[in-house]
Amino acid sequence: MAQARRLAIDIVVPLYNEESIVAEFHRQLTDAIAPLRREHDVRICYVNDGSLDHTGAELLKLATDDPGVTILELSRNFGHQAALTAGLDCARGDVVITMDGDGQHPPELIGEMVTLHLAGYDVVLTQRVAADLPRFKRWTSAAFYRLLGSIGNTRITAASADYRLLARPVLEALRQMREYHRFLRGMVAWAGYRTVVLPYAERARLGGTAKYSLGGMARLGAEATFSFSLVPLKIALVIGVGFLVLAAAEVVYVMSFFFTGRQHLLAPGWSSLMFMLLIVGAALMISVGLVGIYVGYIFQEVKHRPVYLIRTVHGNADDPPARTETTQ
Ligand code: UDP
Ligand code: MG
To answer: Which of 72, 102, 182, 217 maximizes ligand 1 atoms within 8 Å of its Cβ, making it the mutation to test the pocket?
Structure first.
């Protein structure tokens, strides 16, 4: 069998107040990647997302024992997606793997992810299956992905986690997306590239508590909805058109009284008042909707996302375009 390519692999792990489990997590992770380390260069980058407990001190202990460990200390708690971004920005390897530091993402999967990458995939996503999550979280997650699937403009794998492998070109693409409101699952889906989904059974936390409260989940959901769908902006337009239809229906209704000679049944002033009310409502809502459409365009422009991403160029291009192009 041909000798596989030696890869530089970065594993990025964001941590927030995980002092009780970080040592155990690190032990399990290093055990799981020991075989991989014989064939590839693996570095682990812990991002301490402004922990208020002793996570930072625990990490320093790990780094003194293991030269393959880097620690990024953020200046305060910026949140999971920002911490992941910090880790992605500091990754220098051929591939980067992001995973949670609470033991819920089984590190045994890493070997399989790397094998899939060597087989030609640029993105290896993971998907939770048959997890014994609380029913509430499972339902809200399913409903959320269904909603996003119907109103969003990017196909996002349901029940996917922030546990994934990204090859260098995808990482470069993500680095060009400097939007402030980040939903990495969506951004990775937007980038495309050859993608494969690896199912996994989520484990229980090693200890500690989940950092995503109900409010946190709702915030992430809102972030995802508003940054991957412009449908909410168009709601006013739809309501405005609804008012317009009602105004037309009112005209038909009133005319029907005149045609059948029953106009004396109409209360004086009612027809004109209703008509004005509906027309003014329609005009207002339609103008708000139009403003919404322009705001949506501005929203997409200010993100400065690349207009396209190139995976490869085949044939004899003398001057092939850069792998990625920006709008500017
Ligand atoms: N985390 C983080 N910053 C935060 C919240 C969470 O870095 O503000 C880390 C956390 O330490 C864990 C991962 O992100 O390693 C996922 O968080 P959690 O397990 O609480 O989320 P859940 O599994 O409930 O989605
Ligand atoms: Mg977790």
So the answer is: 102
The verdict on the CB of residue 185 being under 6 Å from ligand 1 is no
- Long-range pairs for 212-216 at CB < 8 Å and ≥24 separation? 212/80
Q: Please give the Cα distance from 93 to 169 (Å, whole number).
A: 11
Dist. CA 135–CA 165, nearest whole Å: 28
Q: Phi, psi (5° rounding) for residue 202?
A: -70, 140
For residues 74 and 53, give the distance between their C-alpha atoms in angstroms, rounded to a whole number: 14
Which ligand has an atom closest to residue 217 CA? 1
User: Which of 220, 156, 149, 153 lies closest to 186 in space, CA to CA?
Assistant: 156
- Burial classification of residue 4, based on how many CB atoms lie within 10 Å of its CB (0-12 exposed, 13-18 middle, 19 or more buried): exposed
Ligand nearest to the CA of 16: 1
Concatenating the DSSP letter of every residue in 107-133 gives TTHHHHHHHHHHTT-SEEEEEE-S---
Closest to 91 measured CA to CA, from 34, 5, 9, 32: 9
Write the CATH number of the domain with boundaries 8-211+306-315.
3.90.550.10
pLDDT in tens, the chain (328 residues): 445 689 999 999 999 999 999 999 999 999 999 999 999 999 999 999 999 999 999 999 999 988 999 999 999 999 999 999 999 999 999 999 999 999 999 999 999 999 999 999 999 999 988 656 677 777 888 888 888 877 877 888 887 889 999 999 999 999 999 888 888 999 999 999 999 999 998 888 888 888 877 888 888 888 888 888 888 888 899 999 999 999 999 999 989 998 998 888 888 888 888 899 999 999 999 999 999 999 999 998 898 888 888 888 888 776 655 555 444 4
